[in-house]
């Protein structure tokens, strides 16, 4: 019902609601679970021998040392010193 220029008229009213994202997520997960699931399974089977593990460890330790050196250089450049406690 509306009042226009003193006349009461019957007016069709269409209400619009914002989309419900949670409902959309549930709809997608229930309709197409193979495409819209939270967990993605990846099948990988890797076998490494001791030499390969040692090589990976060496590369990791080198990268960590480089990272530590970069961090110390940045801290030194900014005038920040960190005292390491003696055990």
Provide a brief overview of the structure.
The chain is built from 2 helices and 2 strands.
Task: List the keywords.
87 residues; mainly alpha; elongated
How helix-rich are the residues, as a percent range? 40-55%
Overall pLDDT confidence: 88
Can you summarize the main beta sheet? Answer: 2 strands, antiparallel
Q: Percent of residues in beta strands?
A: 5-15%
Low-confidence stretches: none
Please report the total strand number as a whole number.
2
Strand order of the largest sheet: 1-2
Structural class: mainly alpha
Shape: elongated
Pattern of helices and strands: EEHH
Radius of gyration: 32 Å
Individual helix count: 2
Distance between the termini: 83 Å
Description of the molecule:
This protein has a two-stranded antiparallel ribbon. The N and C termini lie far apart (83 Å). It contains 2 helices and 2 strands. The protein is mainly alpha-helical. Strand 1 (2-4) and strand 2 (7-9) form a beta hairpin.
């Amino acid at each position: 019902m509306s009042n226009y220029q003193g006349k009461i008229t019957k007016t069709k009213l269409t209400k619009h609601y914002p989309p419900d994202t949670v409902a959309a997520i549930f709809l997608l997960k229930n309709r197409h679970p193979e495409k819209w699931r939270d967990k993605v399974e990846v099948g990988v089977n890797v076998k490494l021998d001791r030499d390969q593990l040692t090589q990976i460890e060496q590369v990791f330790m080198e990268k960590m040392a480089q990272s530590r050196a970069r961090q110390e250089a940045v801290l030194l450049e900014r005038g920040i010193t960190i005292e390491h406690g003696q055990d």
